[in-house]
Amino acid sequence: MRSDVFFLLGIFFLVVLFRRESRKLLSSSPSVGEWGWLGPEPLVDTHSADLVMTPSLPRRGNWLTRAIGRLLYRLLGWRIEGQLPDVPKLVIIGAPHTSHWDAILAVGFFLATGLDCRWMVKREACDHALGGLMRWFGAMPVNRQAPGDLAQQVIDEMNRSEKFVLVLTPEGTRKKVERWKTGFYRIALGAGAPITLGYADFERKVAGIGPTIRPSGDLEAQLAEIRAYYSGIPARNPEWF
Questions:
Q1: Which secondary structure element, helix H or strand E, spans residue 210, and what is its range?
Q2: What's a Gene Ontology MF term here (predicted)?
Q3: Over pLDDT 70: what percentage of the chain?
Q4: Does residue 190 or residue 239 have the better pLDDT?
Q5: How many whole angstroms separate alpha carbon 94 and alpha carbon 105?
Q6: What backbone torsions phi and psi does residue 138 show, to the nearest 5 degrees?
Q7: Strand partners, 212
């Protein structure tokens, strides 16, 4: 019951934030300029949101949480495209990551599609009143002080699970970096999971699912291919990508 209250409070604050900021992000949309923040036509292709999911993937939420996620996308004038692979275990990376809006779009995406995914957070971050809400949204507390490799902790967790989707940002920060972190690749390779390339295209206002690759062990070659794919995706702050 307590976690449900925190979940509803979190959704309320997200809606307030989206409502306040939506005019700024939607200022370039003719339909919004003419009709206001809701618009006369649907701004989210709900059919596409339904097509993202495949039978083998883990699911979370219900019709209400999916409706909330699609409403958030409608407020922003964004849409969803692509389809995830039909596998029970998956590593999804998201790029370019140059803004706090990337995280908000990701939350809306996972709510709208009903995908049950995990993202790593230090254990202490969940030891407070909102810990239940964070876990519902997929937070996976990890012990950074524990002996051994952090990537191996996640590999072990994936291997113990029947279904598991992990989401990571390979840049590791919103600022420009010369070299991406490679933990996502090591985790996927160790768990025998494919890597799907997720993106937020701020020019087209599309959050989507790109190609999926199988890690071969040739890190440098495949990382170069991944970065080449993302080089064509417009970021919120291009100078940081």
A1: strand 206-213
A2: 1-acylglycerol-3-phosphate O-acyltransferase activity
A3: 64
A4: 190
A5: 11
A6: 110, 5
A7: 196
